[in-house]
Amino acid sequence: MEILVCVRRVPDTSENEIELNRTGNDIERDELVYSINEADNYAVEEALQIVARTGGTVTVATVGGEDDEEVLRREMAMGANRGVLMSDDAFSGSDGRGIATILKAFVEKGHYDLVLTGVQAEDGGAQVGGMLAALLDYPFASLVTSIEVLEGKKLKISREIAGGNKEMNEIDLPCVLSIQTGINEPRYVGMRGIRQVAGVAIPTFGAKDLGIGVCAVGETAAQVRRVDYFVPILGKGAEILRGTREENVDKVLELVAAKGGLK
Amino acid sequence: MDNIPSAAQVTSWLVTGRILFLLIHVLGVAGFFYIVARRLVPLFRAERDFRFDQPLVRLGRVLKFWLGQWKQPRYKLAGTLHIFIFAGFILLAIRAFSVLIVGVSQNFVMPGLSGSAGPIYNIITDYAATIVLLCMVIAVVRRLVFKPARYAVPARYGKAHTADAIFLLSLIAILMVADSLFAASKAAAPLGPGQAAEALAAFSLPWMLQKVLVSASVPTLGRLYFGVYLLHELTFYFLLCYRPFGIQFHVETSLFNVYFAKLDREILKPVRWGVSDEHLDQVKSFGVKTFEDFTWKHMLDFYTCADCGRCSDNCPSNAVGRPLSPRFLTIKARDYAFRHYPVLGRASNGATLIGSKDSGGIYSEDEIWSCTTCGACEAECPLLVEYIDKIVDLRRGMIDDGNVPQSLQKPLKALESRGNPYGKMEKKKADWTNAKEFQQICPVKTVGKSNGADTLYFVDSITSYDDRMQSIGRATAKILNHVGEDFGILGAAERDSGHEVRRFGEETLFMALRDHNVDAIKASGVQRIITSDPHTYNALKHDYKDVPPVEHISQVIAREVKAGKIRFDPIADNKDNANRVYAYHDPCYLGRHNQIYDDPRDVLDAIPGLKRVEMKRSRDRSFCCGGGGLMLFYEPKEEQRMGVKRVQMAAEAGANVMVTACPFCMVNIEDAIKVAGMEGKMTAIDLTELVDQQIARLSPDLKEERASEIKECVAVSESASRLE
To answer: Which residue of A has its CA nearest to B423?
Structure first.
């Protein structure tokens, strides 16, 4: 199976203290450290596990700049067969639909049986997967928590439903799936692995290569624009129980039960 | 015929004894060498290991640990028994050899024993055989009746080893009895013409047997003499050839295992011997993934293990029910070697060691991550079997395969991008120095090009970022300040020392952290380094190269106490500290790994009125608190926390304050006090915090007095100069 995984490089929320910049329309990016979007990492792991079972190759692709090669290399160190960068000045400022348009153009240049995305980007809105499927006119399923390859170009997948329930679906290939975190346990990638793929060339595709009209993507085409960025004001702090141990235990049980955590 | 015929002369079944015994000799010796040769096959397919240097030092260790049985008395009864058995075997070796040769050449006398030495040697060995037999009886009784807990085999590791142990003990017993009967039957027979009477050692086993046999007829004695000789021969060679199939192989391998044992235990094994750091990228696979990835010495360890169970008896992971037992780490690998490199048949190799039994694996992932590298097993092993290097090598293999628990991936990634496992910003590394009151009394400078210092305080991640542990950092700084040390910190330029990164098998990341720190330390121009974290101390001292000398703060304090620069207020002056009983907990990386046991104790004992007790498990038998560094992020499968056990040990010793000298011990012990429900009954304090509390500083009144004195002096000298 030929699998394409669309990935994204994001500021790592666990390793940054996100602050607003002076103009207040974006975050301060000077001292940020970036990593692969967590859900995308699960998607790559899932692709690698499918390929290990059924054969095929895994391609990881991202839309961005030279800096974004870092996450492609990390995923290649994980085992992805190749990384592809889509980069063009015309792409900057694209909204979700713009990104989906770029990816669609790339998907159409190859022969992919399955396209995976993470369920959402940590700095995004969980839109690209669905839009990409729609633009490609492929079937789409979101919040996927397991994938089983069936005979006859079909997949059996499970999807997470609110309340912790799951539903099982059959879906025809080719299709687009957005992968929920927790679907697997992504393997570790150390510095050594990344160093070993440091010399591998990463092909770059621009707007022309992909046959995308400049007006279809980028800032001009964006129909959703960010007008403000703010940190919500902290609400009331945590409730601290100050009783005896037994009282506290009872109170905690009561609170957890009240919130639906105990049945 | 007055005398009984010698074993070599007896003719039965158409062959003379001489030919029969010659045949047994040849078969026995050939069999033994064939089996040993087969056992050595995997060692030649193993990884390299440089153990051929420093022959004199190694010989010295053979004298101490092998011949001297140095570690045996750590277990009083079992150790004493072993010393007797070992000494017996050594003494009996020549006798056994002579007896074997006598079967072929009846008049053989071992060179050197023909004169007066012969009878003396015989008397000594008569007793030796008797004592060994007695030891066998005691050992069997122990196994069957008293059943020491450390010999038990948990169900997940297979069947009990009791039957095999008793079988082997019995074989040795038979050998001793046969040997004694052989001597007794010969001595009981009437003397032939010109033969000198052979005296047996009084009250020894041969002597007693002789008394029994003295009334037997000569033909009976003759048959007995031949029979026990044959029994001795067969038992001897059976045992010789059977030993390489189990724990008794240590009789042959222990000498070599001790000789080739690691000399510098505190230095971790390189990823691959003979490959420098710069060339590591060219190494295709890291660590141990298959059996053949072990070094030949590590395989020799597997063969040498005597299954005595002392490692696991002291292993904190085993004690709290984690899925790790060093004993079975070895036994499982040994059995793997036996299975895959059989004495008869073809060797099959290449299977992955980590994984389910169905896939041919022998270790589980959790088993390998469960080790805190505390070193208790290695401190105990009488045969100097190595464990930490193997654990780290297995982890290197898992890291290389991407096989890392999710809970460890985040901190490892944070160490890569931010240089600390918490993912905190580098620029906040020195924030602990900014606490208001502290900053006023003890400003800490960040060393840089324009801001030099003699001494670097290497703080490391936990003490820099953890709110609770920052107190250790401030106490350390105040102590250094008090003794007038010109010191500074690296601040944002300091990365995690990488101590646990390396011990968790992430060698490449460790090298990056180390290289960064070495550059920063060199650029700072400091003359020496002080740290308050034993893990950091161990990393800088043993894992880093070309950095200035390193000291742990407890060493500094001990020295300054001796020099009189640090004096303490009596403990009773501090209301909170009065009526307290202190127990010092040895951090693994200060004690066992670096032998710093006395400095912290000396410091405590220098505090007037401080009442200190020792826990049963202390010094090199200290019990790990649960592990530091990345171990704090690992979620082990366990029945109990190590820290809880340790806190209970302190309570048993009658202490209500546990003093540690390591921030990770503090994390684990303070948590454990809460988990054990002992809040209010037990507290924990770092040595630096206690010293900082008790240090005798000039009181404010005294300071004023001193200041006015100085003013007076100045005034006097000024007026004097004016007078001139």
So the answer is: A15
Give bridge partners of residue A115 from the DSSP assignment: A4, A176
Beta carbons within 10 angstroms of residue B348's beta carbon: 11
The C-alpha atoms of residue B592 and residue B589 are separated, in whole angstroms, by: 6
Residue A231 has pLDDT above 80, yes or no: no
Report the candidate in A79, A4, A21 with the shortest Cα–Cα distance to residue A49.
A79
pLDDT at B465: 96
In this structure, are B394 and B429 located in the same domain? no
Prediction ipTM score? 0.87
Q: Let me know: does B662 contact B535? Beta carbons within 8 Å.
A: yes
Q: Do B508 and A190 touch (CB under 8 A)?
A: yes
**Integer Cα distance of B526 and B547 in angstroms:** 9
Residue B702 lies in a domain: no
Domain ends where: B371, B400, B429? Answer: B400
Domain count along chain B: 3
Query: What is d(CA B414, CA B408) in angstroms, rounded to the nearest whole number?
Result: 10
Q: Distance between CA atoms of A61 and A82, rounded to whole angstroms?
A: 9
pTM: 0.91
Give B609-636 pLDDT, tens digit per residue.
999 999 999 999 999 999 888 999 999 9
Interface of A with B in 177-216 (CB under 8 A): 185-193, 195-196
Rounded Cα distance between B179 and B96, Å, is: 8
Q: Using the beta-carbon criterion (under 8 Å), do B281 and A186 form an inter-chain contact?
A: no
- Is residue A249 scored above 70 in pLDDT? yes
- From chain B, the residues in CB contact with A195 under 8 A are 281, 508
For B506, the closest of A12, A186, A190 (CB atoms) is: A190
Enumerate domains of chain A plus CATH numbers: 2-221 (3.40.50.620)
Q: What is the mean pLDDT of chain B?
A: 91
Residue-number span of the structural domain to which B130 is assigned: 11-259
Contact A139, A172 (CB under 8 A): yes
Give me B492's structure tokens.
């944002």
In the block, which residue shows the tokens 């207040």?
Answer: A24
- Residue contacts between A and B (CB atoms, under 8 Å): 57
Instruction: Look at B534 and B196; give whichever has higher pLDDT.
Output: B534
Assigned domain for B341 exists: yes
Question: B569: buried, middle or exposed (CB in 10 Å: 19+, 13-18, 0-12)?
Answer: middle
Chain B contact probe: residue of A9, A75, A192, A244 with most B CBs at under 10 A: A192
Classify residue A243 as left (phi > 0), alpha (psi -120 to 50) or beta: beta
- Sorting pLDDT into bands at 50, 70 and 90, what band is B91? very high
pLDDT at B2: 47
User: Is there a domain that residue B599 lies in?
Assistant: yes
The amino acid occupying position B82 is: H
Taking only the tens place, the pLDDT of each residue in A153-196 is: 999 999 988 887 889 999 999 999 999 999 999 999 999 999 99
- Cα–Cα distance, B144 to B365 (Å, whole number): 35
How far is B643 from B637, CA to CA, in rounded Å? Answer: 15
B395 and B425 both lie in a single domain: no
